[in-house]
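Researcher: First entry.
Model:
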Amino acid sequence: MRNPGKLLYLIILVACIGLSGCGLCVKYIPSGIVAQPTPSAEDQFIKIGSVNYHYAEYPAGGPDVLMVHGWSSSTYTWEKVAPTLQKQGYHVWCVDMQGFGWSDKPGGAAYDPLTLMRDVKAWMDAVGLKKVIYVGNSLGGGVGFYLAVEHPEVVDKLILIDAACLYPVKDPFITDLLRLPGSAIVGKLIFSRWMISTNLKGTYYHSDWVTDDQIDAYYTRMRTIGALDAMIAMARGLDLKKLKPYTRRAGLIQSQTMIIHGQNDTTWVPIESSRRLRQNIPHSILVEIPECGHMPQEEHPAITTRLILDFLDGKLAHDTVLPKPST
């Protein structure tokens, strides 16, 4: 085999099958089922067109907070943050975007960031959300950024957490693999709990903090029908040329914005991206969390929740580098 890239691909395939077993034995979960109910929240579905969307609602009498997950994630990622916001009076909504979590994953659908942004706006219209405090991690941060550019009237305040939205960065190895020919077949062969565990631990600075419950939560949702195909479509559908007209309008965002970033996010969104975001969004601040990877809301949920509340209460108005968290 003369092509070293293909040889590496084959070696990885053999190694993954050897470590994890064949993914063809996985039992997949049909659409429309919540296999793991959301604690302290109401799991609901709403059909928009032909797509059934799942969302977790934490009712309260105060302002609406919309929380949107990242790539390969779901409403689960907010389960350690949303209840505290609810207790402080915020009405929290966590939605599974099309292709993720318990929402439908139709074959042949588009899963690029702009399409997902329009889908989120359609979901907001369907559930009656007129204006929200938008909180997004990773891909969900990018969706929020594009929403604030395209529909500024619906975004009151914007909170971007390790957001993948503005500047091209080197793609993680897993997304490179998903773009390779035959990845749909290979993905099903190597798909396993071990693969999910490895990927999840790669998002953490403290990889040993990832629990079995977390791994099971991600693995269970990725066992829904169409999930792997949606991930592949997402990886292949990313087109930076289509995003440039939006990223150039960052200076037009008028929402007060807090940008949170784990300083040790080296695999997915390097901190330089958020530092440049800070320069381009006029009414923004940047908070850096040391010893933290790509998902502060899971690795440091108490810190992330406190930052959100302080920002919304007007107690946090300047760029900040937090001290190293105590373990």
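Researcher: Second entry.
Model:
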Amino acid sequence: MRAQSELEIRILDMIEPVAASLGLDVVRVRVMGSQTPTLQIMAERPDGTMTVAACAKLSRALNPILEVEDPIAGEYSLEV
């Protein structure tokens, strides 16, 4: 399952089009922790590979949508 909670499903729905536009598939979305949660997003190319450059590009592309939508109240860490 790529997302488990309602929050994770909502985040998946908002980030999946961005990842797809970069030729990537979102593999998993997890929100972990309570005091300062970590939003973990795992993605890969259709052939199952991933590069550091593609990961950085996805992170930069997701930042604006996460800033606007603000899916997690308060501070959190983004891990792509």
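Model: Note on the second entry: Residues 1 and 28 are 8 Å apart (CA to CA).
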